[in-house]
Each structure stands twice: as structure tokens, then as C-alpha cells.
Design brief:
It is built from 2 helices and 11 strands. By secondary structure, it is of the alpha+beta class. The longest helix is centred in the first third of the chain and has 24 residues.
């Protein structure tokens, strides 16, 4: 009986070794990235980024701060997490744009902010504090123009306006509300 047990045990061990050998010698398919997959995959990731852009006179015109940015080769696109952009202007307070995320295309020629977008400018002599809020906004850094076709709220002291669509000319401190504008005015001086 001992011989039968030993033969059965030895046969089981040989069978297991054969199965393990078969498992480890089988060909594992290798992941291959084709040109199309490489175009839409991130080829660079940066963390805790501060980027400053200067104008022709050497003054800072834009500052971007973000905890994470990824470059996608297709359309020279950058995916930006929690972007904060400061837009410096001569003799007026800076404009600031914040959002949950943004996508910059064509090397930053167009930046589309998404989710809880807030544009803010503090008050100073001659200007009132202004805050615009929307869910999606396109910003053109070369022209300092911000625009959206989505619902927008525009707040200044004593004014609260809601509209559909907006075009803001940040250099001129001019905001055009495109349609369905409705507002409330509160006289704070009376």
C-alpha cells in the first residue's frame, strides 16, 4: 500500500510540475501601442507647476498655477487639473480664472475651462469688484477674451445678473451678456 501511495503522490507531483511548466512557458501577448494610441496618450506629466508668460516689455502677463498638467500630442493639448490663471493688466487689478479643470490646445492658444469656472477682478479706485461664474468658458490669452455659450452669473456690488452666453473683453473691462439677461439691482447707498 505504501508503494501505491508513493506512486500516486509522485504522479500528482509530476502532473502539477507539467501544468506549472505549461503555464509559465505559454506566450503572454505583449501590449503594442500604435501611432493613434500614442497620439491620444499622455507623453508628459508635470506636478506642482507654475508657468509665467511675459509681454514684449518684459512684464508678467499671465501666470498659471496647477497641481497637475499632462501633455497629449494630438492637437498639442494640455490637460490641466485645478487651474488658476492670473492675468496682469496695467493700472487695473488682475483678473483671476479658477476652475476644476481645463484643456489648452494649440500650445495654449485656446484654453477651455470646465466645472465651477470663476472669473474675478478685485476692486480698486475707479473699478468695482466683478465676479463671473459659469460651467464652461473659453479663454483666448493672446486677445484677453473670455467667452461662453452656457449659463453665466455676473456679480458686482449691488448687481446680480444671470444670462445665457457671455463675451468678456478683459483688457477693456467690458462684458457683453448674449441672451436672456435678467438682473437684480440693490442700491447700497440709500
Amino acid at each position: 500500500m505504501n508503494l501505491t501511495k508513493n506512486s500516486l503522490l509522485m504522479g500528482t507531483i509530476l502532473l502539477m510540475m507539467a501544468l506549472y511548466g505549461l503555464y509559465f512557458t505559454r506566450t503572454i501577448p505583449k501590449l503594442k501601442l500604435d501611432e493613434q494610441a500614442l497620439q491620444i496618450s499622455a507623453n508628459m506629466t508635470m506636478q506642482d507647476v507654475i508657468v509665467q508668460q511675459f509681454d514684449m516689455a518684459g512684464h508678467i502677463s499671465h501666470t498659471l498655477t496647477t497641481p497637475l498638467i499632462q501633455h497629449i500630442p494630438l492637437h498639442d493639448m494640455h490637460k490641466i487639473t485645478a487651474p488658476h490663471i492670473v492675468i496682469a493688466q496695467t493700472n487695473t487689478p488682475t483678473w483671476e480664472i479658477n476652475a476644476k479643470r481645463a484643456i489648452a490646445t494649440a500650445g495654449g492658444q485656446t484654453i477651455t475651462f470646465q466645472k465651477q469656472v470663476v472669473i474675478h477682478q478685485a476692486a480698486n479706485q475707479g473699478t468695482q469688484e466683478s465676479t463671473l461664474q459659469t460651467e464652461k468658458l473659453t479663454y483666448l490669452p493672446q486677445n484677453n477674451i473670455a467667452m461662453t455659450t452656457h449659463h453665466v452669473t455676473f456679480d458686482q456690488p449691488g448687481n446680480h445678473i444671470q444670462a445665457i452666453g457671455m463675451k468678456a473683453y478683459l483688457n477693456e473691462r467690458r462684458v457683453d451678456l448674449l441672451s436672456h439677461a435678467q438682473g437684480n439691482y440693490t442700491n447700497n447707498h440709500g
